[in-house]
Write a structure and sequence with these properties.
This is Protein odr-4 homolog. With 224 residues, the chain is α+β, with helices and mostly antiparallel strands. It is built from five helices and ten strands; from the N terminus they run βααββαββαβββαββ. The protein has one domain (14-223). The strands form two sheets. The chain has a seven-stranded mixed beta sheet with strand order 3-2-4-1-5-10-6. A three-stranded antiparallel beta sheet has the order 8-7-9, with no helix packed on it.
Amino acid sequence: KPADLKYQSTPSSWLTIDCNVQVDLTIPLSSCATYQEKQKSTRWAEELNNAVIFFNGQVKDSDGDLKEEQKKSRPAAHSSNQIISANILLNSNPFNRSTALVQVCKSSLSIQGVVKCRGYVSSNKPKVKDAEQALKRDLLNSLSDRCEIILNGSQHESQKALCPLPQRVFIPIPGSSITLCDYVFGDETEEDLHNRFLEMLDQEVDYKTFMFVEEKNSQDTYGM
């Protein structure tokens, strides 16, 4: 029997979950391990996995509906660009602490500052657990990408170097509701960014539409 095709009268929409996270962590690096390999075992990643997340200032059950209360208060409201504010509370359990951990490493990477993370979930009956997973995955991926850019693109001559993390930017794709995420350095000019995204997207993009979502104060320290 052939499958039945059902057409939707309205296009699908997505909820945007925005969150600012204060980051202060140190990652040991060896000569043979990548940042992705190290982040899987870091305690900070484990704390993030057990973190409590507030959505619009409220803690909700993971299996519950993300928009349940909004439906009751504003049943007629509907938007294709709905934004939910989130806060991540890292839950460190003092009873699970062990003695000091000693690791042999070639160098270490310290990250300090406020990092912006953003998750997307379908607006069709979104669950809290889907939003939680989207935020945590985006935060880990964002830190991983930026640290890889720093480690692969920098040659540190001193024993300790201090530099800002690449800034996160979202670029709207003309003619669609999709945004492209990328990372830029503070010394890149408007012309540099225009040429880069023109080559990447093969179409003109307006610099005025770029969304720089972070202040230029997050930094990383790379010590030998």
